[in-house]
Automatic annotation (TrEMBL):
Cofactors (names): heme
Record organism: Solanum lycopersicum (Tomato)
GO-annotated molecular function: heme binding; iron ion binding; monooxygenase activity; oxidoreductase activity, acting on paired donors, with incorporation or reduction of molecular oxygen
Listed Pfam families: p450
SUPFAM superfamilies: Cytochrome P450
Recorded family membership: Belongs to the cytochrome P450 family.
Keywords: Heme, Iron, Metal-binding, Monooxygenase, Oxidoreductase
Protein known as: Cytochrome P450
PROSITE patterns given in the database record: CYTOCHROME_P450
Origin superkingdom: Eukaryota
Binding-site residues, heme: 127
Length: 187
């Protein structure tokens, strides 16, 4: 939601999509999610910039290996920085800019098959809750966008929004997001 507030054109585009798909309904249903193609791009982009766990679960090497010029000994604890990977300019053009369209017509997905995008880790130690959490987030965001128009509180400007993230096991904003919601009546 914070990235959408900072990017009103994206907010408008994703709201139009959600409201078109759910037109005539009282809410967005799980069966509608597959139609929300742009919203899926928005969520991927948000996860690229703000992965749920900035450092993936530590791994221990099973044998000595060499990565670039570094030799990593057997039984070394290794941390994977998902935030650094998701914002690496080697893989992403304008890596710190919120651009959902960068995922358009690409096979990059959450499942850990693309090493430049690992918000849930990869392989057998990837997040076991991915199949539950992604549809849940999609459904929640879709319904928030369907039912409400969102703005910053009176007098607050986008430049006043602090996007700093707090330290911790999971990623969250250091200062909670506060928005004003206006009920959208044209359902």
């Amino acid at each position: 939601m914070a990235e959408l507030i900072l990017n009103p054109k994206v907010m408008k585009k994703v709201q139009q999509e959600v409201r078109q798909v759910a037109k005539g309904k009282t809410k967005v249903h799980e069966t509608d999610l597959y139609k929300l193609e742009y919203m899926k791009l928005v969520i991927k982009e948000a996860l690229r910039l703000h992965p749920p766990a900035p450092l993936l679960i530590p791994r221990v090497t099973t044998s000595t290996c060499k990565i670039m010029d570094y030799e990593i000994k057997e039984n070394t604890r290794v941390l994977i920085n998902a935030t650094a990977i998701g914002t690496d300019p080697k893989y992403w053009e304008n890596p710190l800019t919120f651009i959902p369209e960068r995922f358009m017509n690409k096979d990059i997905d959450y499942k850990g098959q693309s090493c430049e995008f690992l918000p849930f880790g990869a392989g057998r130690r990837g997040c076991p809750g991915i199949n539950f959490s992604v549809p849940l987030v999609e459904l929640a965001i879709a319904n928030l966008l369907f039912h409400y128009d969102w703005t910053l509180p009176h007098g607050m400007k986008p430049k006043d929004l602090d996007m700093e993230e707090a330290l911790g096991l999971t990623m969250h904003k250091k200062i909670p997001l506060c928005l004003s919601a206006s009920y959208y009546y044209d359902l």
